Amino acid sequence: MSRSQALLLFLVLVIGGGLAIGYITLPGEWYAGLVKPSFNPPNWIFAPVWTILYILIAIAGWRVWDRGLSVPQEFWWAQLALNFLWSPAFFGFQQMGLALIVIVLLLITIIGFIKVTWSSEPVSALLFVPYMLWVAFAALLNGSLWRLNAG
Q: Membrane-spanning residues where (predicted)?
């Protein structure tokens, strides 16, 4: 497999997986009925932000794969699994507490990826910084939604 084919595969996997999970777990009426914190962004912002982040995630994953960096690859696959688990936990099962656990673990995994790639593959580490910031914000949002709507 050529490098460009591998990059394309990473992009298809991450963007395609993210879009598929997003489509399967659309927010719907349940989410619309939740009490939202004052800093809740408008719904239209999520799709473009996640699309950009998924591109960055795919490129970072491809770069560590291309360089044969095994520990960063482990962190990369772990964060992808947690990322793809969050929407079903939050929107699919409507379990905000479980989703909060997932997103905190995701944030820890993202930080771990940045830490283990910082010296060996700094470009990949930097590609994950916007992702880390967005997930930290999303964790705060998830926690606030849980607190405001706990029954």
A: 44-63, 99-118, 125-146
